[in-house]
Write a structure and sequence with these properties.
The protein has 453 residues and is of the alpha+beta class. It folds into three domains: 83 residues, no CATH class; 63 residues, no CATH class; 244 residues, Rossmann fold. The protein is 28% helix and 16% strand. Strand 1 and strand 2 form a beta hairpin. Helix 1 packs across helix 8 and helix 10 packs across helix 11. The structure holds zinc ion (4 copies).
Length: 453
């Protein structure tokens, strides 16, 4: 991993209160980011309620997967499962107060998806006007609007929708390495070193390990990433966080997990999403889960997008254990539940913090809570560094180490290697002092991920 530029280093995933002393937070709705409507509840046609930011985030997650119809994500007490009632954007408009900018966003994206599905039309990256593809075998598409405007021939790639790069006579793939056309499943698998079957057999015979299910249609691993990027107070926006989201998604998919990704949630939205996540039937057919939380944070927990010094909007980390514990999430009993948190835990620098060695275990009954591993980006009270260009040190180093060593090490050893990387980086490479920390971990066996098996 390359060293972050000096000027990028001071981006911390904290918004400690002292930072706000000189900041006037405007109460004027007009000046706030119009997508964010704090504290509103949405009611769907099926009768289920949810924080509005959760609903919007959920629908955006569907759009990202190129789905034009949504389903209710709420847990239904009577059905004892996820509601799943289908609803359209039009249905949503009847019951949910959307801002003009949100309406515009949804309508534009839905129009694009519908056009792409039913006709050979796509928006030109140069002028955003819809261009028809005349030759279905040709990825290189000519835009007459841009050509007329620029006075020279303008083409774009049908697959990745970028200005055409490379030889114009090559119609099968454009000049970008990451064009979606060329991104095969092979490339994804290359991300992570795969495990040999003999290794798994040997571990099963010689060590106390968590049993993992073989890759099959019956195995349904599900993970969730909550990534708060845009906050109501704009100078809290977490630039570079999208890099962490991409890396984490690729890693989890390579490990065989389906990944639900939600952006920009309030504390209430995070809690609702967490509760619904814990009730997915997939967990019953899974052998483990990952829950990843990326946001600002402080000593009291993880910050929602409405955070400011007046309103708080904080989700205590304890809620994660509450919802994923045996009582509320029987589907994950006896299965490793790995929690990764990228967020500050205070505003102190990593090299100032001194350990007093006292940790309270009060209130933890051993079997009410078991099989958790919670790995956090830093020690209590300290900051977590995020590079605004390449993402956070924690997530980026973790993904790199998992990719290289998950085929041979159990998860605690992987976490140790991440911590070792931080120690080495601070001492030898003049990285900021930051020490990832294992919290509230109750694994009773070794957990090997056995990538590829
Ligand atoms: Zn519902
Ligand atoms: Zn154009
Ligand atoms: Zn392309
Ligand atoms: Zn700070």
């Amino acid at each position: 991993m390359s060293q972050p530029k000096e000027e990028d280093r001071d981006s911390e995933d904290a918004a400690p209160l002292p930072h706000f002393r000189n900041l006037r937070i405007s109460g004027d709705e007009q000046k706030r980011k119009s997508d964010v409507l704090p504290g509103k509840t949405a009611v769907l046609s099926c009768g289920h309620q949810m924080p509005l930011d959760y609903l919007i985030s959920w629908c955006k997650y569907y759009l990202k997967q190129e789905k034009t119809e949504f389903t209710c994500p709420r847990f239904d007490e009577y059905k004892k499962g996820i509601c799943g009632t289908k609803f359209s954007y039009q249905d949503m408009c009847h019951t949910v107060p959307l801002t003009p900018s949100l309406k515009e966003f949804f309508e534009e994206r839905l129009g694009e998806l519908t056009a792409a599905r039913f006709c050979e039309f796509k928006a030109c990256p140069g002028c955003q006007s819809y261009v028809e593809r005349a030759d279905q075998k040709n990825l290189c598409v000519h835009c007459t609007v841009c050509t007329a405007r620029m006075g020279c021939s303008y083409e774009f790639c049908w697959k990745c929708r970028r200005k055409w790069k490379g030889a114009a006579q090559n119609n099968v793939h454009c000049g970008y390495n990451d064009c979606r056309q060329t991104e095969t499943s092979q490339k994804k698998r290359d991300l992570i070193k795969l495990c040999q079957p003999a290794f798994k057999i040997q571990k099963l015979q010689t060590e106390e390990i968590y049993s993992t299910k073989e890759k099959s249609n019956d195995r349904q691993r599900l993970a969730m990433i909550i990534n708060n990027v845009e906050f109501r107070v704009k100078n809290l926006n977490r630039r570079g966080a999208e890099k962490d989201e991409e890396s984490m998604k690729s890693l989890l998919e390579a490990l065989g997990y389906g990944v639900i990704i939600l952006n920009d949630l309030s504390a209430a939205g995070m809690e609702a999403a967490l509760r619904d996540f814990s009730q997915h039937k997939e967990h019953r057919y899974s052998d483990s889960t990952f829950f990843i939380m990326m946001s600002h944070g402080g000593p009291d927990g993880i910050y929602g997008i409405n955070f400011d010094d007046k309103e708080g909007d904080i989700l205590p980390v304890d809620r994660i254990f509450h919802y994923l514990g045996s009582e509320n999430c029987p589907g994950l009993t006896d299965k490793p539940k790995i929690i990764l948190i990228q967020a500050c835990r205070g505003d102190k620098e990593g090299h100032v913090w001194v350990c007093d060695g006292v940790r309270s275990n009060k209130g933890i009954k051993q079997h009410r809570e078991k099989d958790f591993a919670c790995f956090r980006s830093c020690t209590p009270d300290t900051v977590s560094i995020r590079n605004t260009g390449s993402g956070s040190l924690f997530i980026q180093s973790l993904v790199k180490i998992f990719s290289e060593h998950a085929h041979e090490d159990d998860i605690m050893e992987l976490f140790r290697k991440v911590a070792h990387w931080f120690e080495k980086a601070a001492k030898e490479d003049e990285f900021p002092y930051q020490m990832p920390s294992l919290d509230r971990t109750t694994l009773v066996n070794k957990f090997y991920l056995f990538p590829g098996l």
